[in-house]
Amino acid sequence: MPADHILTYALAMRGGAEAALARMLQGWLRHGRRVTLVLGEDSGQFQNGVPAGVDIVTLGHQRYAGLCTTLPAMIERVRPDIVFCPGNHYTSMAAWARLRLADGCPPIVGKMSNAVDRGDHHPLIAWGQRQWLARHRLFLDSLVAMTPATARAARAATGLSVAVIPNPPSAPSPSPWSDAILPPGRRILGVGRLEPQKRWDRLITAMTHLPEDIGLTILGEGSLRPALTAQIEVLGLEHRVSLPGHVANPAAAMAAAPVLALPSDYEGVPGVLREALAVGTPVVTTDSSPAVHEIVSDPSLGTIVPRDDLAALVAGLRQWLSPVAPRPDPVPQPGQDSAERYLALFDSIVTARRRRDDLVSEPVSADIGLGARAVAVARRLALRPAL
């Protein structure tokens, strides 16, 4: 009993979770599944990655509450076999769909796209986050994590069954590369959204402790561009730090860079680290997720530093910018079979749900005793998902 029709959703196709989703859709279509993608807005740098053949429903806005309230009606209208929640940012939408549709809601599978413990949370907010994660088992049928360490943390926080499935790797881009974006020489590369989570301000501050011949290029776009531009100007780094925005071929920039840096407060499984290591570029990264240690598994691949240790960040960058620092051998990215593994998980969940529904729908014989009838009813109730 395969999950022939998959529904998933996003506010817009921007961010790491959405980029991974676009790559996943290609694999699902390739295996003959029907996919409906509900979008707040038909926008984002990864919108072109959504393959032809996906049924796209666009709401015309990026209001979180708007997509949240619309999702149950959309599920009722298109009647998918399963719903995929593509990241932590979207789980409240899944919870609302389950609450509104109750037993009429198809199975929902979520993905843990960020760390269980975030580095930017006040202790009270962190406690609230833990309480929220503990309630995920009330509306999710299963959860996916991208590495074993992330899965262990997710299982402990949610009490759910957690499958380990990495994101599908990025495909090489045919776009040409230009040295104008990343000039040759000792230049640090950052790749990611210009948002608070990424803490590019740390990396810019680190530049004041590095020699004048070292430059920094950060590829990405986001709400912090004005603040980061102002920081660069205040520190007098305009001649050393550039923010070119999005580029079509970040992998080529990674291959050309002496080192890639990721100074985030928190991450899920940072794909940018895997992408850099896949082209043999060492990384310097904060300890932003349990998955970081799984990716940077050997000192020959890069340096992991504490989140708020500026001196360690500077030292790590100096080490890998040294002319005698060896580049690591390329590390192949996992996830070539991710689409197939997701579909196997979806199929198993849909099959189990249909068998449960068939059992619950069987009539109870009128000639059985009251005790036997009570046992039969109890068994049926036990098969219902907790809500």
In short:
This protein is of the alpha/beta class.
Report strand order across the widest sheet: 3-2-1-4-5-6-7
The N- to C-terminal Cα distance equals: 25 Å
Q: Low-confidence parts lasting 5 or more residues at pLDDT below 50?
A: 366-387
The quaternary state of the protein chains shown equals: single chain
Reported for the largest beta sheet, the result is: 7 strands, parallel
SSE topology sketch:
Elements: E1 5-10, H1 16-30, E2 34-39, E3 55-58, H2 64-78, E4 82-85, H3 91-101, E5 108-111, H4 123-134, E6 142-145, H5 148-158, E7 162-164, E8 187-191, H6 200-207, E9 215-219, H7 225-234, E10 241-245, H8 250-256, E11 259-262, H9 271-278, E12 283-286, H10 290-295, E13 302-305, H11 310-321, H12 338-361, H13 370-382
Parallel strand pairs: 1-2, 1-4, 2-3, 4-5, 5-6, 6-7, 8-9, 8-11, 9-10, 11-12, 12-13
Helix pairs in contact: 1-12, 2-3, 6-11
What does this structure look like?
- This protein is α/β, with parallel strands linked by helices and 387 residues long.
- It has 13 helices and 13 strands.
- The chain has a 7-stranded parallel sheet, sandwiched between helices. It has a 6-stranded parallel sheet with strand order 10-9-8-11-12-13, with helices on both faces.
- Strand 5 (108-111), helix 4 and strand 6 (142-145) form a beta-alpha-beta unit.
- Helix 1 (16-30) crosses helix 12 (338-361).
- The two termini are 25 Å apart.
- Residues 366-387 have low confidence and may be disordered.
